[in-house]
Every structure is written in C-alpha cells, then in structure tokens.
Prior knowledge:
363 residues, alpha+beta, 7-stranded mixed beta sheet, 12 helices
Amino acid sequence: MDGQAKDSRIDAAMALLPLFRANAAKTEAARQALPEIIAALRDAGLFRVFQPPRVGGQPMPRTDWMNIVFELARACGSSAWVYMVLSSHAGMLMGFSPEVQDEVWGKDQDALLSSAVGPVGRARKAEGGYRLSGKFTFSSGCDFASWAVLGGRDIDDPAGKPLTFLVPLSDMALVDDWFTVGLAGTGSKTLLADEIFVAARRVHPAFAIAGTAAPAAFCYTTIGLAQGALDRFTDHIKARAQSRETDWPMIYNVAAEAQGKIDAARLLIDRDMREMAPFGPRAPLPPAMRARNQRDQAVATKLATEAVDALYSAAGASAIHVKSDFRRAYADTRAAALHAANSWTNAKHDGAVRFGQDYTPAW
Length: 363
C-alpha cells in the first residue's frame, strides 16, 4: 500500500469469511441476504467506503474495496453481490447536491440504497419535479435499503436521454418475485412506482453508474465467484477421491487452466482500475478508455465462466446435487455473467473505437 497503514476494515472483512461460508446455503434458501450478514458488514464499517466523510463516510481506495468484494464472493456469492451493490451505490449520489446527500444520510448515516438503473421508468414533468411510474426489476438488497436509485426517461423529451431518480423506498411497492437458479440469495426483487412525485433536486441528468466503480465491480464479483467455484471444486474432488478412483492428471490440467483464466481475468480488471485511479471517483473517463474497460469486463467475464464450465464438466455427476456447494458456486457464476455490465456484447464498443466509429458510452 505504498507505505500507508493498512485499513483495519480489510482484516475485518476477511474475518467475516467463515460467517459467509457457513451461511451460504441458508442465504440461498432465504432468497435474500441474512440480517446478521448485513449487520456484520455494517458493524465493520464496510458500507461507508463511498460515502462522503461529512456524513459518516470512511473512504477506501477502490482497489482495496474490489479485493474485499473478490474475497467475499469466494465465500458466498449472493451475500457478496448484495454487499457490492449496496456499498457501491453511495458513489452514485456523488453526482447529486450535498442537500440531497443530507436527505439520505443526515438522520441515518447507515442508510443504504438499492437500485434499478436501467432507464425503464416513465417520467413526466410536474411542478417542482417529475411524476415517475414503472416496473423496476433486479433491485438487489432492496430489503435492507431505505432509498432506491432508479433509471428512467422523460416521455416528453424527444432525445430520450436517460435520467436518474432518487426515491424513498417507502414510496414504492416491493414485489417478492425473486425465484432464480443462480444468485438466489440476493433478494433482487421488483420495485413498482405509480405516479410518485420526485423533486427536481433528486433527479440527475445522467446514467447513474457513469464514472463509478460499479460496472467493474460486477465483473470482479464474477471473478471472485469463479475462484470460489475452483475452491469448491477442489474440496469436491478431494472428497470424491476418498471413495472412488480419480483421474488425477486430467483434474490437474482442468484446475490449472481454470486458475490461469481466473488470474488473467483479475489482472485485466486490475490494470483498468489502476489506470482509472487518477481520474477520481466521478470524473469522466476518455471515451476510448471507457470502451476498453467495457471490453475488458466482457473478456474477463468470459474467461471466468469458461473456467467454471470446465470445472463443472470435470466434477462428476454428484456435483448436480442440490445441496452441493459446488453446484451453488457454478449457478451463481453463470447468473452473474448474465448481468448487463458483464455482457459479451459490450466488447463491440472497443471494436467500434478501433475502426473509427462514433461511440457514446453507456457508463
């Protein structure tokens, strides 16, 4: 850390790994993060890494935060995903005024924000702000949040530019519809808005995650999930070898190639994070860098999922058992790879820049 004292929260996060591992199956069955997990993360100060210091924030370098996310994902994919999402959302508020930040944290410095940032909401200007309606899906960790960051558009705006709305969750209905085969414990439920009023000060004229660490964090969590899958694979094979013959040379090759792909994916994102650091947490990045970063997130996700697919194919039939930790790690990794920030379609943006095409980055 270049001579700087190590942040005690890094050790605190590592101390939570046994709690994450021990409750992974329970979290999956609950279909949302467990209250004791959220409480432990809050007590460790890990939700405040992107909060302004004047409202209780305790800043942490993005690289340290990303490494924490990686390690937590190895232990429990769903709990790590919820932590990554809820902690990163504080960075989205940096584009709003101090007045709005005080609305969120002035009375409760532990307040958390969930999101659904795809611009699907339908808004129309009203006196002093907007009226917002819409169905906002995949709001991870919303059970523990008091505010939501939502994406939408002014339906009367011919340009259709995306807007970001900050809304108290008490103004919305929460639909318990999160029944999935992967990342089942994230509680990524649907939020419903019906003509709710959003004051102009809580509307930002930009896509919420632009300039934040959130897009890369979705990828880094996926890489951590892949590492966790390799951990579970290793345990699974060792246990199986006690009762039957195992083709060790094949297993060695599969495990070695998987670790190589995981390491390559992680190094790719690490490079991007280092080069983003001088721009600050909300400063706009050069379009070419943003295009490259989106490509790298797609490539890194592809490497991670290829590693896990090979592990699953080599694990043997018992890996499909519903109680298998390896089955959960495989399903979680596959689910994470489907997130829009990890999509292989994002690689095309870098190709467009390479061939001299106009490129308007989404984030």
